[in-house]
Specification:
The chain has one domain. The chain has ten helices and two strands; from the N terminus they run βαααααααααβα. α1 runs antiparallel to α3, α2 packs across α3 and α3 packs antiparallel against α4. The chain is elongated and about 90 Å long.
Length: about 250
C-alpha cells in the first residue's frame, strides 16, 4: 500500500480560495453589475436630454411637437437597447473572469502539489494546456467522482457559456444548445416553433442573476469537495496524457 500523500488541500488554503472567490462575486455585484440597476430610468432621462439638446431647433411655425417627442422616444429606446446590450456583455465578462480565476487556481494547486514529488516541464505544460475534461479525468483518478457531484453540471455549463462568449459560434455553442439551452434566450421558443433552437447563435447568450449565483455556488462547493489528502493507494490509473507526460519527463533526465 502506497500511503505517500501526492495531493493535499490544506484547510487554510481551501478557505483562502473560497474567500477570494466570494470577494470577487461580492465586489462584482457591488462595483460593476450594480451600475445597471436603473437602466429604465436612465433611458427615460435620455429622452429628456434629447429634448433639451434639440429644443433650439424647434420652430412652432414649421414643426409638429409630436415629431420631436417621437424622436426623443426613439433616442430613449436606442439608449435602452445599447445599455441593455452592455449589461448582458458585462454579466458575461464577470462570469468569464470568475470561471478563469477558478480554472487557473485549480491548475496552480495541482502543479504546486505535483512539484513536491516530480520534476519536469512536460507535466507542468500539460496541466496548463489540457482542456477541463482532461483535468476532470485526473481528479477522478484520485477516487474523487467529481462528475457525479451536484455542482458539476453548473461548472460544465459555465465552461460552455464562457467558451461561447469568448469564441462565438462553434462546438461549444452546439454543446450548449444540446445540454443547457436555458442560457440561450430565444423569443421564438416561446411560440413553440419547430426547429427554432437551431436559429440560435452566440448573440442569444444570456446569464441571469440566479444562474450567475448558481455558478458561484458551484465553485464554492467544488473547493469544499476537494479531498484533504490523496494518497498513492487512492489513485487509480491516471489519464494517458498525464502518464505520458510523466514518462517524457523521466526520459529527459536519463
Amino acid at each position: 500500500m502506497n500511503n505517500y500523500v501526492y495531493f493535499q488541500m490544506w484547510s487554510f488554503h481551501r478557505q483562502s480560495l473560497i474567500r477570494g472567490h466570494q470577494f470577487y462575486v461580492e465586489q462584482a455585484r457591488k462595483r460593476v453589475l450594480s451600475q445597471f440597476d436603473n437602466i429604465e430610468a436612465e433611458a427615460e432621462k435620455a429622452a429628456d436630454d434629447w429634448l433639451e439638446q434639440n429644443s433650439n431647433r424647434f420652430d412652432p411655425d414649421r414643426h409638429d411637437p409630436s415629431d420631436f417627442y417621437e424622436a426623443a422616444q426613439d433616442a430613449s429606446i436606442e439608449f435602452y437597447e445599447l445599455l441593455s446590450d452592455m449589461w448582458d456583455q458585462t454579466w458575461l465578462s464577470v462570469v468569464a473572469g470568475m470561471f478563469h480565476q477558478w480554472d487557473k487556481q485549480l491548475r496552480e494547486w495541482l502543479i504546486a502539489e505535483i512539484r513536491h514529488w516530480h520534476r519536469g516541464d512536460a507535466v507542468i505544460a500539460k496541466v496548463w494546456s489540457v482542456d477541463f475534461g482532461k483535468i476532470a479525468d485526473l481528479l477522478e483518478s484520485f477516487g474523487w467522482k467529481v462528475r457525479d457531484a451536484d455542482y458539476f453540471k453548473a461548472l460544465d455549463a459555465c465552461r460552455l457559456v464562457v467558451n461561447v462568449y469568448k469564441h462565438g459560434d462553434g462546438n461549444s455553442l452546439k454543446d450548449l444548445k444540446a445540454a443547457y439551452p436555458e442560457y440561450l434566450e430565444d423569443p421564438l421558443l416561446e411560440a413553440d416553433l419547430p426547429g427554432s433552437r437551431e436559429l440560435l447563435d452566440h448573440s442569444n447568450l444570456r446569464v441571469s442573476d440566479e444562474q450567475f449565483q448558481a455558478f458561484s455556488n458551484a465553485i464554492v462547493a467544488f473547493w469544499r469537495g476537494v479531498p484533504e489528502n490523496v494518497a498513492g493507494s487512492q489513485i487509480a490509473q491516471v489519464p494517458d496524457w498525464f502518464e505520458k507526460a510523466i514518462v517524457s519527463d523521466r526520459a529527459g533526465k536519463r
